[in-house]
Write a structure and sequence with these properties.
alpha+beta; 2 domains; 206 residues; globular; Alpha-Beta Plaits; 5-stranded antiparallel sheet
Amino acid sequence: MSTLDQRYFGRDITCASLHTVYSFLTCRLVHSIPFSAREKLMCYRAGCAREYSAAGPEDPPADAFAAHLFRFWDEVLATSPGPGWLAHPAVAEFTQITLHAMEGVLCTLEGYVILPTHVHVLYSQDLALRSGPTPLHVADALKTPVAHFATRVLDLRGPFWQDSDYHRILRSHQELRSVQRYIRRDPVRAGLVSHPDQWLWSWERK
C-alpha cells in the first residue's frame, strides 16, 4: 500500500463522510522487547482470544480487541529492562524537533509522548490528498534522523530502532479520545512522574 487512497479507501468505513484520518504510531528502541515480555503477551493474548471467540455479535469489534492487547503490551514493556536512550535530554529534544518538523509536510501532529524506550505519536492526514504520505513515510521521517543523531551523541553501534512499528487507524471519535488520554497519561503509568504535566517530553494539540 503506497498511497492514502490505497490504504484507507475501500475499507469497511464510510469514506464519503471522512475528511481526516487519525493514526496512532508507536516506534520502539531495538532490544526493548525482552523474551519475558513476549511470553506474557502470548499468554494474555491466548486468554483474550478464547473469550473473544465466544463473544456474541454485540461485543466489541476486532479493532477494540487489538487496542486492548496493545494496552497490556505497552504496560508490560514500560516496566521491562532495555535501552533507555530516548531518556537522554539531547536525544529527547532532537526527537521533539523532528516530530514538529513533520507538521504540515507529512501530516498534522495531534500529540506525542517520548518515553525512554519508545515514542507514541498521534497524527492526522487530509483524505483530500489521496496520494499523500503513508504511515511508513511518517515513521521513517521520525526514525531515520533520530537514529543518526542519537548514535552520534551516545556513541552507539548497531541499530537504534526496532524494525517493526505499531500503527493503528482510529475509526471513531471514541477511539481518538481514548488514544489522546492514553498518550497523555503514559509517563504516569510508567512511574516517571506523578502528573502528566510534569513530563517534559510530551505535547498535545489544544
